[in-house]
Write a structure and sequence with these properties.
The structure is a single chain. The protein has 24 helices and 18 strands. It starts with a helix and ends in a 7-residue tail after the last strand. 39% of the residues lie in helices and 15% in strands. By secondary structure, the chain is an alpha/beta fold. It has 3 domains: 169 residues, 3-Layer(aba) Sandwich (Rossmann fold); 160 residues, 3-Layer(aba) Sandwich (Rossmann fold); 236 residues, 3-Layer(aba) Sandwich (Rossmann fold). Strands 2-1-3-4-6-5 form a 6-stranded parallel beta sheet. A 6-stranded parallel beta sheet has the order 9-8-7-10-11-12.
Amino acid sequence: MASAASEALAVLEANGIGCIFGNPGTTEVPFLDASVSSGIDFHLCLHEGVAVAMADGYGRATRSTGVVMVHTSVGTANTLANLINLRSDRSPLLVIAGDKDDRLSARGCFCEVPDLPGLVRQVTKEAWRVTLPEKLPELVLRGLKVAAAPAPGPVFLAVPENYMAAELDAGFVGRDRRRADRVTLRAHPEELARIVEALGSAERPLIIAGNGVGAGSALPLLVDLVERLCIPVVGEEVFTTNALNFPTDHPCYHGNFSAQSAVVADADVVVALGARLFMEYAWPEQAALHPGIRLLQIGADADELGKIYPAELAVLADVDDAICGLHRIAVDSAGPTAAKLAQRRTRTFVPRGAPLSSGAGAVLSGAGMALETVGAVAQHAGFAGSADTAVADTSLSAALAGIDTAATGTIAAMMNSPMQRMQPVRLLQRMDEILPEDIVIVDESVLSKSMMQSHFRLSGRRTYFGTSGGGLGWGIPAAVGVQLGMPGRRVVAFVGDGGALFNIHALWTAAHLGAPVVAVIINNDGYMAVRRGLGQFDRAAQQANCFPGSSFSMPTIDIPMIARGFGVRAFTVRSEEELVDALRIALDSGQPSVIDAHVVSSHYY
């Protein structure tokens, strides 16, 4: 005999799922108890929004479906913001919510709502309620299939507690312990041949590489295809980019999609591969694609094909499979003439400015060697040492203690100066120089995201994860999940101070599990999107130089102190040299760390 809860866990195990993230209550006790004797770990999170983002990060890192457990209506409500993110990002997730005993229904019981799945139905692919004990393992299996099927997304399952604990009849034990069916989409070879012909014959072709490319494994073939046909590439729009869709340092790459980009404005044929066209933030004053352009789309999300702009050819297909087919056809075909390739090179290989490692920005001259000494002292002082020093004061200023003040007084004053701040572009350029070539970036930097895309090399062995839903609080917990899913890689969360404060308690789970994620928080003292919006609105707020709802000043938020309260080492940095030292110490420590990087706020407005 087996309980419905233990059988549901066996279904998860059969699908290679080794952990559940959640914030439970007493309603979920049958699941928690069954997990003790299963092969599945339960990772406690201090908020349901944290659990959703952490499971999402883990799922993305392992190319699987994340699983979350939450408590009744109140826990379900707390998942909504990040479920909106996952729905936008087309990211698979299974949410299992405990519900009160079915016999208490309609009696006004604890945490009761009339329709628990209805709370999330607008932001999930499916939302079901278990009506019999034997339905629980069946719906877990179906939920895994639906979540991962094109287009992926979250699935919700409400489970009354009396059904979790119920013993199943022998005929239902083991019935659903199997891999969920995998749904595949294949493009017809004739459709792919039409696309290759269009790219070959066009005067000014363009490829838009979208998240469907980055989510797969065919990027090297796309790079070779682009080089063979000499075609410029743009990525999805900055805001919707959530994967590494094309190497950002490749000579054919022209940045993220913009209607003002020269290669977009003059294109006669556009092929969009797994790209969203488009997520509009405001009513567009001009069309993103000019009239008369030939648009051909390939993607696994039917809703995105011909959504706003008419497509000459809309192919519903797995993007990886389609890229393989396009590449195979291009290799076997004659391709563009030598004259046409020569003509295309002028357009395709346009220089795009200075190398990533260079650029304007104030460097604190004369202090570099001394600050490197400070970094070395910090390491020898135990800041990269054992767990019992993890909550110590690890600001770089503290590392000056015991050093000859005559040699370091000027630097100490500079470090402690509240006016000292970095330019955000220089912050990213220094990160690019210091971080390893196989770094994993988890990005929730909002207004800094475009700088991440243009001033930090996303290529080679580097990996990138982002979000597009607009709900703050995804970045740090997602990075913890990614770190757990990629234990052999170093993971850096790149998040704004506003987003960090939504779910900063994810740091406790990182410390508890020993996940050595590094969170670089771009501290610009507030919600700069609101500040910029008020300035652009150009009415009373701009005239009065008063911008309500945008500033974190009075009092200033001490992010490092908060981080230390969760058991995580933390640094405050205000200069490029301090940033470099803090990154090196954090990476060497093998422990979760926060770097509170103060940047010039006015850059954003």
